[in-house]
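Re: beginner question about structure tokens

> Can someone show what the tokenized structure looks like for a real chain? I only ever see the sequence side.

Sure, here's an example I had lying around. Input first:
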Amino acid sequence: MTDKTVDPTGPAVIRPGDPRYENLVQGFNHRFVGRPDEVRLVTTTEEVVAAVDEAVAAGKRIAVRSGGHCFENFTTSPEIEILLDLSELNRIAHDPARRAIEVGSGALLGDVYRTLFKRWGVTIPGGTGFEVGVGGHFPVGGYGPLSRRDGLIVDHLYAVEVVVVDESGRAGAVVATSEPDDPHRDLWWAHTGGGGGNFGVVTRYWLRTPGADTDDPAGLLPKAPARVWKRTVMWPWDGMTERSLTTLLRNYATWYENNDDADSPAAGLWSNLIVTHRNSGMFGMTVVIDHDGPDAEKVFAEHFESVSAGVGVEPVVHTAEVVPWFSSWLPSYSFPSDPKGRYKDKAGYLRKGFTDHQLDVIWRYLSDPEHTNPMSCIVVAGFGGKVNTVAPDATAAVQRDSVLKVLYCAGIWQSEDQDEANIAWVRAFYRDAYAPSGGVPVPDENSDGTYIGYPDRDLADPAWNTSGVPWSTLYYGGNYPRLQQVKRTYDPRNVFRHALSVELPGGEANVKEDQDA
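And the corresponding structure tokens:
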């Protein structure tokens, strides 16, 4: 008898053998491929509730995927038996009752940008991966090229709808808002940087900038730029000495240290410096600023002058132009940009520039003649500005005084036999960069932990984190105990979990897993 794979009264159910299956169990990072018993392609909140109820009643491990753009195996772990695919929950609309913009958690960032801009001329300060699903991007905080001007995405999050499971094992949908008298306000707060896959299944978000008091959707979120100044610079590795690269990196960080004031015209500028390995031949920087912002052209010019001063190596590519915002300003890194891409990335926040020790390590690893992957790199992205005007405990996103984010990347490779060498390289690079603090970015004068949007299971491994500081502190700082209390209230059975999920207080996570096994 042939399995019935599509129920006309409910979600599509895709199982092994279905021609759709292999396409739905592969995510962004091709190192990980899931083998769940089934994929549920849900289309309504009610279908999510029913699917969660069924999975819990059957004792089956469940995971949730929006866009599949996860660095680790949170949605592809071998233990996962039911995968909820939220991609059809992609409605983007004005909700006049809540005076907010409703965004389904299956929507992709590119679709959100396109709809917000075309319908209402507004935008959100999100990332540059247009194929990233908002279901995963929003709850980690969400940042991008407009964050220095407009803050994090979660600084504009008004409400969230979450399917949660109570102590009895029953699922139900809860809408939590930022209203001070909302009894579910802590659940809203947990989704302002507390990470995905921790408390339940997010089905919808509502966005509204604090202080926006209008029924007009065009006034609910930040205005999108009409056009931007955009600079693209490529420096050659030929002639790049340790002193040259060190000068460039110091200059780059110093500019952000000196231009962190959210009220300064410089807060409108964002840049992304990607220094690839020496055997790539060259590396580059992208810079953007709203053309119509205050002193934009002056800030745009002064930034490049400051960054390039004393480097002593002339760019081989250098363009500066005015381009339309919507069509061409973002340096998008979209899945599946490499249909076989395999990755291992590690990250950290910088309160100020790299230390001398870190600069030495960066030079050593990026000029290492024994390493052969030309795509291995560090990415240094502008941060701070408006982000740093919010108190660390006002949202779950605790890092509110950093000026840069840095990503240590093994690059992209395409075959399993290259895994060991690339992963070993980036692990050693990161460990050595943070050697004085136990191999990880322990909060101190220079560092402030790391970003849960770039999850790294190594931080929970004592072989790679010898600092004595737990992974939870690196990601969540002093906000972690409150997140654990939200976990206890809304996911007391620890139904929603992965390798770096928020733990129940007092080690209850392991107890519950043993009871439910």
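Each token stands for a local structural state, so reading them left to right follows the chain. Residues 242-258 form the longest helix (17 residues).
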